[in-house]
């Protein structure tokens, strides 16, 4: 039975994406409900000719709720959120909406902005500055999150980068933030952060929502030391590529190979593409692609998969993304192809890999991370 969101006599069936067996996590939260209730019960009248802009909608609950009330634009940095939104719109037989990435231009003359707080303050500041540049003075901006995620510092960011800010009381441990755009505060969007990795002769750029925004994370630093070079490699995949540093190093070590970098974050893939263009002698050697793991990749088509899996989806700690990555890698690898994975020691990836591949070895480790290898 599909989970149902019922408010004000209306019911939507909403699922996370990808749908998994024994799904227990619902595709909306109390902050979504609070936003919907506030708009429905307030005296806000929506103009059917002006768009509603929804930002960071995790699985499409807000987009689906407002889709029938006029033009809606949903902006997200998550390809999985985009797929979930489109699937839930179709399941509920709702009008199609514009679902785009957060690097795209904002729609013209929006009347209402509904913003779910992102996990990253860097992305929040970037989005607030983006809004301040483009919103008309009469646009209503309402943000929502769990109450524990809204701090005094959060409200100060809204005040500094967008305009006068107030907050609501908590309901079901969620709160709303109300902000009035002040165009006099408009400022140019901050450029992506750039820094050097001198020991590997690399210069890297990260857009606002890319993990480890201003330095090389310690897991990637360890994995960089253990990327194999093998002249028989034709096709290498960097799965969950982030800014692309692992795939770029693999391309440098294996100039005969095509390297495909995959991430579900549009900002990560944009960063990866820019970094490949800056650091590779032959940038065309590397392909950067937004995807849900290795969906639609043919079987037996890769010689090496390098993977640094995330263990969060939005704010939920989970291992299902890593497990999907490992299964997809096994499907995609050729016979005798290798999957190399780095993870925190406590995550226990070795047992999962041994169960799936029948073999696992430890390539390297330190007091925090382990690098595993499994061969198909």
Main sheet characteristics? 7 strands, mixed
User: Helical stretch count?
Assistant: 10
Query: What amount of the residues lies in strands?
Result: 25-35%
Indicate the overall shape. globular
Q: pLDDT below 50 for ≥5 consecutive residues: which ranges?
A: 312-318
Helix content: 25-40%
Q: What distance separates the N and C termini?
A: 37 Å
Order of helices and strands: EEHEHEHEEHEHEEEEHEHEHEEEEHEHEE
Number of strands: 20
Q: Which strand order spans the largest sheet, edge to edge or round the barrel?
A: 5-4-3-6-7-9-8
Structure report:
A hairpin with a 2-residue loop joins strand 16 and strand 17. This protein has 10 helices and 20 strands. The protein has helices spanning 30-41, 61-66, 79-91, 121-134, 152-161, 218-224, 245-253, 266-279, 320-332, 349-357, and strands at 4-7, 10-13, 52-55, 72-76, 98-101, 112-116, 140-146, 163-167, 174-181, 193-197, 202-206, 235-239, 258-263, 286-290, 302-307, 312-313, 316-317, 333-344, 361-365, 369-375. The protein has a 7-stranded mixed sheet with strand order 5-4-3-6-7-9-8, with helices on both faces. Strands 14-13-12-15-18-20-19 form a 7-stranded mixed sheet, with helices on both faces. The model is unreliable at 312-318 (pLDDT under 50). The chain has 376 residues and is of the alpha/beta class. The longest helix has 14 residues, at 121-134. Helix 9 packs parallel to helix 10.
